[in-house]
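Give me the fold.
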Amino acid sequence: MDRAAYRIVQEALTNVRRHAGPDASATVVVGYAPGELSLVVTDDGTGPAAAAEGGGGMSGGSHGAGNGIAGMRHRAATFGGTVEAGPREAGGFEVRATIPLREEDKT
């Protein structure tokens, strides 16, 4: 599960570099809650959010999903988790992953 979480963050940051624009910055937040790991990667870029018609909003669907996002979803799903990705209302893009923790992952 650790490797899957690492790869999700890695892919999200790769997407920032590829799509958010040259002056974009990114923020990574890793959270541990009882029974759950959460990962949030946001950027303030001008990539997909600027191209989206009618504003932003997170989506669990395939809107704007490329192979990278599909790969992140697959990695999370392997452990019973989910990934939502999409443009942010304030601009930029956000990837939000949630992965349940098994008992052996909690130590």
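The chain is about 30% helix and 30% strand.
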